[in-house]
Every structure is written in structure tokens, then in C-alpha cells.
């Protein structure tokens, strides 16, 4: 190595960044991450996915730092699944989100936590994107998965980490406007095209501080690493909040243009393991 690219704390997005386009981590990337960890490089991930999914997708990677899951709703110890901090919706706000989605005829998926147990609850799955969302979780045996009869009952007296819905791409902008007007400052609304089901946009409603910028700062302080230089890696719009607070930003060539424009470094694409090759300077991991 001839530069300082490995210095400091490193936080990686998963889909489109570390993961290839088929949502898998290559053997090269797995071995590369472990080589970095073995060399003493502090690193972890910040993902819209859950800790259950992160544990499955990164099987064999020896992470020890907490992970940021659900875009920052939880800071979680990966080995135990214990939530160290949470930024979740109160019942009244979650109910308002359900009301707004009902007006849009958009079927909600709920991620809830009662202080002990995490649950992901879905309805009848009335579109291809919802079918994919539920089928993926069934495929890796997500123990949180279940069905609801009445979504309103499920957000009463509990913490709601996220309310998710899928809408056709052409309806996404209008749907976000309706949700933002209904919820105001009580919740954040994020929308992103679903990379695995073309034509559908995933809308996530969550606590205003359930975003990666707030979460990466909190993680650094919780881990006692706030004094280190922070480098973040991402490809999509939900990564921009952590780009805004990082000392160094890196994106793969496949990143959204708004992300690439804000990156200090653009590497080869995710399907070429560009991020890990950049960190290893093209070298094969030991």
C-alpha cells in the first residue's frame, strides 16, 4: 500500500456496494473483509436490511463491531441480535402511516419490536415486489416473519421500526408526497427503486433519526471510535446521509449518479468487487 486508504473506521453499505447484483457476497469479498479485520481495520456495515439478513449474507465474515440495520432504526450486536439503541415510531405515528397507506391502497409490511422480540408482519402480498420481499425472507429462514390480520393492532403498544410498502415506479413520487404531508416531522419517508423487482419502488416510513448519517455517528461514539477518520461506502440515495457526515466517501461504478457525484473515490462496480479490490489495492487477500 502506498496511501492511507485503510486508516480509520470503515462502514459499508451492502446491496449494490459489497454485495453483487444477485445479492451475494463473493468469496473474494468475504476473504478480503476478513483480511482487513485480521489486520486490525475496524469495519462494519450499515444497511436497510435486518440483522438477520446481514448475518446470513455475511456468513463467514468475522465482524465484531455492532451493525446498523434498517437504515439506522437499530444499532445491533450481530452475534446476539441484541439492540443497543433504537430509533422507532411511536404507536400514534405508526397508525397515521397506516392511514396514509390505506388512502394510497398500498399494502404495508411492519417491522416491530416489543422490547424483546422482533417481528416482520405482512398481509396477503398483493404485488410482485411484496411477493419477492416475503419469499426472500422465507428462503433464509427469517424467524421474525409472520402474517397479520389487522395491521393497526400490531402497531399498538409496541415499537415500530419501519412501515414498508411497494408502489409502481410511476406512482412513487405522488405517494411520497401524500405520506410526507400526512406525517410531517413525525417520520421520515424514503423511496428507492427496487433493484430486484424492476418497475416497483420501495417506500420506507421510519423515525426521522432512523437514517445512516445519524447512525454512523452514534456507532462511532458507542464503539469508542469517534476519534478515528470515518470512511463510508455506498451506492444509493439512502447512503447520502452517511456521505454527508463522513471524512471520506467511496462509491462503486454502479452507484446512483447523485451518490457518485458526492464520492471522493469511485471504484470498479460491485459485480467486480470494486470496493474490496480498492481497499486491497488489487491484491488477492491472504
Description:
The chain has 286 residues and is an alpha/beta fold. The protein folds into 2 domains: 9-86 and 210-279, Rossmann fold (3-Layer(aba) Sandwich); 91-206, Hypothetical Protein, Haloacid Dehalogenase-like Hydrolase, Chain: A, domain 2 (2-Layer Sandwich). Helix content is 33%, strand content 23%. It has helices spanning 14-18, 27-38, 51-57, 91-103, 128-139, 151-154, 169-183, 212-222, 240-245, 257-260, 274-279; strands spanning 9-12, 43-45, 67-69, 74-76, 83-86, 109-113, 118-122, 145-147, 159-168, 188-193, 200-206, 230-233, 248-252, 265-267. The protein has a 6-stranded mixed β-sheet with strand order 8-7-6-9-11-10, sandwiched between helices. Strands 2-1-12-13-14 form a 5-stranded parallel β-sheet. Strands 3-4-5 form a 3-stranded antiparallel β-sheet, covered by helices on one side. Strand 10 (188-193) and strand 11 (200-206) form a beta hairpin. Pfam families: Hydrolase_3. InterPro entries: HAD-like_sf, HAD_sf. One of its GO terms (molecular function) is magnesium ion binding.
**Overall mean pLDDT score?**
96
What Rg, in angstroms, do the CA atoms define? 18 Å
Biggest sheet statistics: 6 strands, mixed
At the fold tier of CATH, the topology name of the largest domain is Rossmann fold
Structure annotation, total helices:
11
CATH architecture of the largest domain: 3-Layer(aba) Sandwich
* Strand tally: 14
Give the H and E element order: EHHEHEEEHEEHEHEHEEHEHEHEH
Strand line-up in the sheet with most strands: 8-7-6-9-11-10
Helix content range of the residues, please? 25-40%
> Strand-residue fraction?
15-25%
Structural class: alpha/beta
Query: How many structurally independent domains?
Result: 2
* Name of the CATH class of the largest domain: Alpha Beta
Query: What is the CATH superfamily of the largest domain?
Result: HAD superfamily/HAD-like
Oligomer state equals single chain
User: How would the global form be characterised?
Assistant: globular
The first-to-last residue Cα distance is 15 Å
Spans where pLDDT lies below 50 across 5 or more residues = none
Amino acid at each position: 500500500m502506498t496511501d492511507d486508504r485503510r486508516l480509520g473506521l470503515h462502514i459499508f453499505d451492502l446491496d449494490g456496494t459489497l454485495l453483487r447484483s444477485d445479492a451475494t457476497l463473493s468469496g473474494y469479498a468475504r476473504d478480503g473483509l476478513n483480511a482487513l479485520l485480521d489486520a486490525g481495520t475496524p469495519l462494519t456495515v450499515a444497511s436497510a436490511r435486518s440483522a438477520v439478513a446481514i448475518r446470513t449474507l455475511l456468513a463467514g465474515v468475522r465482524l465484531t463491531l455492532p451493525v446498523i440495520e434498517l437504515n439506522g432504526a437499530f444499532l445491533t450486536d450481530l452475534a446476539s441480535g441484541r439492540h443497543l439503541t433504537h430509533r422507532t415510531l411511536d404507536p400514534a405515528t405508526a397508525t397515521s402511516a397506516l392511514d396514509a397507506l390505506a388512502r394510497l391502497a398500498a399494502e404495508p409490511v411492519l417491522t416491530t419490536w416489543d422490547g424483546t422480540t422482533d417481528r416482520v408482519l405482512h398481509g396477503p402480498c398483493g404485488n410482485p415486489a411484496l411477493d419477492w420481499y416475503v419469499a426472500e425472507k422465507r428462503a433464509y429462514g427469517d424467524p421474525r416473519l409472520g402474517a397479520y390480520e389487522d395491521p393497526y393492532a400490531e402497531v399498538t403498544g409496541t415499537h415500530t421500526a419501519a412501515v414498508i410498502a411497494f408502489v409502481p415506479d410511476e406512482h412513487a413520487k405522488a405517494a411520497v408526497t401524500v405520506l410526507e404531508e400526512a406525517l410531517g416531522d413525525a417520520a421520515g419517508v424514503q423511496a428507492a427503486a427496487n433493484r430486484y423487482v424492476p418497475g416497483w419502488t420501495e417506500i420506507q416510513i421510519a423515525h426521522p433519526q432512523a437514517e445512516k448519517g445519524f447512525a454512523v455517528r452514534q456507532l462511532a461514539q458507542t464503539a469508542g471510535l469517534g476519534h478515528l477518520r470515518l470512511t463510508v461506502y455506498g451506492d444509493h440515495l439512502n447512503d447520502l446521509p452517511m456521505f454527508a457526515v463522513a471524512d471520506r466517501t467511496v462509491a462503486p461504478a454502479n452507484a446512483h449518479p447523485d451518490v457518485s457525484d458526492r464520492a471522493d473515490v469511485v471504484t470498479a462496480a460491485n459485480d467486480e468487487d470494486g470496493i474490496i479490490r480498492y481497499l486491497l489495492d488489487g491484491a488477492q487477500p491472504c
